[in-house]
Every structure is written in C-alpha cells, then in structure tokens.
Design goal:
With 559 residues, the chain is mainly alpha-helical. It is built from 23 helices and 10 strands. The strands form 4 sheets. A 3-stranded mixed sheet has the order 3-4-8.
Length: 559
C-alpha cells in the first residue's frame, strides 16, 4: 500500500514510499519512509538489536528472581502459622496428642509440651509471636494485613506507572513494605518485563516467571524438612536479595513501549541504544517507529484535508471523526490509495493519545465489558489461590506431601496454561481451568475426612492445577485484552478488587470445614460462566465503522 505525503503549499501530493500493513516482526523486511529511513514496529526493533539476547536474559532473570523472593513470604504463611504437634499429659504421666484450643487453652491446669521430633513442628510465628492460644480469626488477620498492603499498592501504583516512568516507579515500590511492594513486583514489574521482551518470547517468559513463584512452596518445604525448622534464615535471605534487585534496577533503561505510548520517540530510541549496548549490537539506531511515522502522516494529511475541502464538508468530516473518537477514543489516520491516478482517502484508527484513565476505558463498551469480566476473573483466581495456600495447614494427610504436590502441580499448570491460551483461546481455557478447580474443590469437600491414601493429594492436584492455571492466565492475557495505554490502569483495577476480596481469604481459611471449600467452589463458578462473554475480537464492528467513515470521505472527495 502506498502512502502519500501532502505538499500543503501546492496542494499536491508526493509518494514517500511503500509501507507494508503487516505488523509481523520480520526484521529482514523493514519498511522505508522518506530519505530511506526504516520504519519498524517495536518488536522489529528488538529483533534488529538481537532479539532475546543478553539484556533480555539479564532483565528477565532479575525480575523473575524478584517474583520468587516476593513469594517467600506470601507462600510461607501456611508454614509460618502452622501449629506444632502438642502432647498433653495424663495424670499418670503418659502423653496424648491434643489440640490447643480444645485442651490447655481452655483449662490452664492441663500440662503440655511440643513434640519437636515431629517434622511438622516448626520454629515459626506460633512460637515467636505466642500464637498458641490466639483465636483463628486473629491468626487469619496476619495474612489479611499482607493483602491490605497489597491492595493499597494496587490502588495507587499501576495508575502512577502511567504518569511516571516504569523504571523509577518500580524502584520506589520495591523499597516499600512487602505487601505494598508486592504489587510492584506482580503488576508493574511484570509489565516492565513483558514490554522489554520480543513478542514471540512473552508467553514463555511470563509462564517461567509464574513457575518460579510456583516452586517457592516446594523450596520452603524442603528447607524445613532437610535444613532447619527455623523460619528466620530463609526470610532474611529473601529480604537481602530483594534489596540487591532494587539496586540492580538502576542499571536498566526505561521501557521503550511505555515511551512510544507517550509519543516520546527520541527517548525510546535512547532506551534502545542502552539495550543495544547490552546485546553487543554496533549498528545505527536511526529508524523511525511505525507509530511515529503514522503520526507524521496524520498531521500532514489532515492539514491537506482542511485546506482543500469546502467548509461545510470539512465540518461533516470532523463530525464523523468526533463520533468515531467517542466510540473508540482513537484519532484518524489518513491512508491514501492510488486509484485512477487520483487520491482516494481511507481512514484507519490507531489508538488516540489519551491518559489511559478509568474514564477513558469506561467510554468504550468493549473495554468496559472486558474490564468488568476480568475483574471477576481476577477476584476468583486471587481469592481461591491464596485461600488454598492458607488452608494447606488444615487439610488432612501429610503436610509436606500436600505442599510438594501443590507446588509441583502449580509448576505444571503454569507451563500448560501458556500453551493452552495459544491453542484453544482465552475463553475456553478460562472455562476449562475454573471447571477443573471446581471438581478438585468438590472432591476435597467429599473426602475431607480421608487422611490416608491418595484421594486428598489427588484432590489438591486438581484444585491447585485449575486455580493456578487461571491465575497465570490473568497475567498473560491482561496485556493482550487491553491496549498498552490502558494496561497499567486495567492491571491496577483488577489487582485492587482482587486483593480487596483476598483480604478475607485467610479468615475464610480459618473457618471450620467445609465452609472454606464451599466458598472456593462457588467463587470459581462465577468467572467460569462470565468468561463466555469476553469480547476478544471487535474486528467486524471496527471495520463497519471504517467503512462508514470512508463513505463519508468519498462523498467529499469523489473519484
């Protein structure tokens, strides 16, 4: 397709080159603009600088480690709050296994001791914080406070990331408390990492980051089984390495995708220069970005239209644009087609330069609907995922076996979910994952008293697989469903509502069985239904709008 540059002084047009409309990231076939300057998408630019090379390897490793260390506290709650094995004394001096809330907490005259020979008796917060006789609701509040901090971050940090650079914002939040900074790792850090990664590696890197989090409970279980029962050394190590990650971020450049979305193209090229040095690329970075080229064409062609069409027709043209902008919040980009040696105008609709605010999202029916559904999907995934984590200490069977089965299952779920998203689509994979989690939850209700055999581990496997896969998909598809300019706001809103409800998951986990698993199943059922209504294409509607606007312009400028 040929672009035409308009000469405003003469009212004539001059071809400046051929621009391929295909956005496929083929670095060998770049487009060319005026003066032979290459016009590339960001993904093509990444491929030219070496693709997934030294910089991407270092940045991805850095953030993946940050995700892992962040999980060292979030996933340790079931071990940090697990009561040890108590032995109460009979009058004859013999002992029997007892529960604190049913014996010596009610009757202080009953003598007891902790069975430190039992592998599940850990030196954790029950001992350090004297939680032995605390009520279940008070113990649940410890985990809830983590999500209060997370929710505070979800309310502010992703929205700030739209106005403030990804790099600076991420540095600030990692210095904050674990709960507050967890949003920096989970949302802003994840977006930053994905924006620095070529498209064809994003699913793999995103899934690998989630896998690193998923194996954290297994590492903690093996640590307590074979190294020490003391909780402090491991948590001190994770806190120290988080500090190292914070310092390392100083060497990273700003996200070029963020800069391009803000039309700061020169700064985006400087960011790519830093990436090029890391990747040992010595070639010039003198290309233009496709968005940048389209913005220049739009400016030239709209000026030509205003100067060369009658006043009343110009009003009609502007009215058509205004109506379309209210529908899609996009700006008109004029693309010319050479037909019978005369210029015929066809209008396209790239994203308008907007603030990415909640108001902008709600103006668009498709994004507003998807936002509501994704908030529901996030709420169910987050609440059920963490509730299952907190409840692990109460599920019958061997504690460490259940933890290891859950961690292994979660790792497999992260690998499989990324593959399933590409093969069967977002709607179907969400329905499948939540259905599997519901089946696992129902089995845990039915077989809750079976402490022997494989029924409990198998039930945990299904429940954990389904909800872990759904949680991973939430991260993988959010950047796909929403445009870049809305991604930070949408991510923040989903996290905000998810963590607002997840505040209560530790408290629900402390309730008597089968209440926790009933709530688990009911909550998973809602997104299983709503996922059918996700609007993932919108292509026909958009093409119809393009056709309508093209017909209006055809009336103004006949062939």
């Amino acid at each position: 397709m040929k672009h035409t540059q308009f000469d405003n002084s003469s009212g004539k047009s001059t071809k400046i080159g051929s621009v391929d409309e295909d956005d496929s990231p083929n670095p060998q076939s770049s487009n060319h603009g005026s003066a032979g300057v290459d016009i590339l998408t960001l993904d093509q630019a990444f491929e030219r600088l070496g693709g997934f090379s030294y910089f991407q390897l270092w940045a991805s490793s850095l953030f993946i480690w940050a995700f892992t260390t962040g999980g060292c506290l979030a996933f340790a709650f079931s071990m940090l709050e697990k009561p040890p094995k108590y032995l109460c004394f009979n009058k004859d001096g013999t002992t029997y296994e007892c529960k604190a809330d049913q014996t010596f907490c009610k009757d202080p005259s009953i003598k007891y001791k902790i069975d430190w020979d039992d592998p599940t008796s850990l030196h954790n917060w029950v001992e350090s914080l004297d939680l032995t006789c605390e009520s279940a609701s008070r113990i649940g509040m410890i985990g809830s406070m983590f999500f209060v901090g997370y929710m505070s971050g979800a309310f502010t940090l992703p929205r700030i990331s739209i106005c403030m650079s990804r790099k600076l914002n991420l540095t600030l939040v990692l210095i904050c408390g674990f709960g507050f900074a967890s949003l920096g790792r989970a949302a802003i850090g994840f977006l930053y990492m994905q924006e620095m990664t070529p498209d064809k590696y994003k699913t793999f890197i995103g899934s690998f980051a989630q896998i690193s989090i998923g194996i954290t409970p297994a590492i903690l279980a093996l640590y307590h089984l074979y190294i020490t029962k003391d909780w402090l050394p491991f948590q001190a190590f994770s806190a120290f390495t988080t500090l190292l990650v914070t310092i390392s971020i100083i060497a990273l450049p700003e996200s070029p995708q963020y800069l391009i979305s803000k039309k700061r193209y020169d700064e985006a090229r400087k960011s790519l220069e830093t990436i090029a040095r890391w990747n040992r690329y010595d070639g010039p970075i003198d290309f233009k970005f496709k968005d940048e080229d389209q913005a220049l064409l739009q400016s030239d062609e709209e000026t030509y239209l205003k100067q060369n069409i009658p006043y009343q027709d110009a009003n009609k043209y502007e009215s058509a644009n205004d109506q379309n902008q209210n529908q899609y919040t996009t700006s008109a980009d004029c693309d010319t087609l050479q037909s019978s040696r005369q210029d015929r105008i066809k209008l396209k609709e790239p994203n308008q330069n907007n603030s990415g605010s909640i108001k902008e999202i709600l103006k668009q029916k498709q994004h507003a609907c998807n936002l509501f559904i994704m908030i529901t999907v996030w709420i169910a995934a987050s609440f059920d995922y963490y509730q299952l984590n907190f409840q692990m200490k109460y599920i019958k069977g061997d504690f460490f076996t259940n933890i290891l089965v859950a961690a292994l299952t979660e790792t497999i779920a992260y690998i499989v979910s990324g593959y399933l998203v590409q093969k069967i689509g977002i709607r179907r994979v969400l329905i499948f994952c939540y259905s599997v989690s519901i089946i696992g939850g129902l089995m845990l209700i039915v077989f809750q008293d079976r402490s022997q055999g494989y029924l409990i581990p198998f039930s945990i496997l299904l429940a954990r697989f389904g909800i872990s896969a759904a949680y991973n998909i939430c991260y993988l598809v959010s950047a796909v469903i929403f445009p870049t300019v809305f991604a930070g706001t949408a991510f923040g809103l989903c996290n905000l509502f998810a963590k607002m409800t997840t505040i209560f998951s530790p408290i629900v986990a402390e309730a008597a069985a089968p209440i926790p698993m009933i709530s688990y199943c009911l909550l998973a059922l809602v997104p299983c239904i709503l996922a059918n209504f996700l609007i993932l294409d919108g292509i026909e509607e958009k093409q119809d709008k393009n056709k309508k606007r093209t017909e209006i312009i055809s009336e103004i400028i006949p062939e």
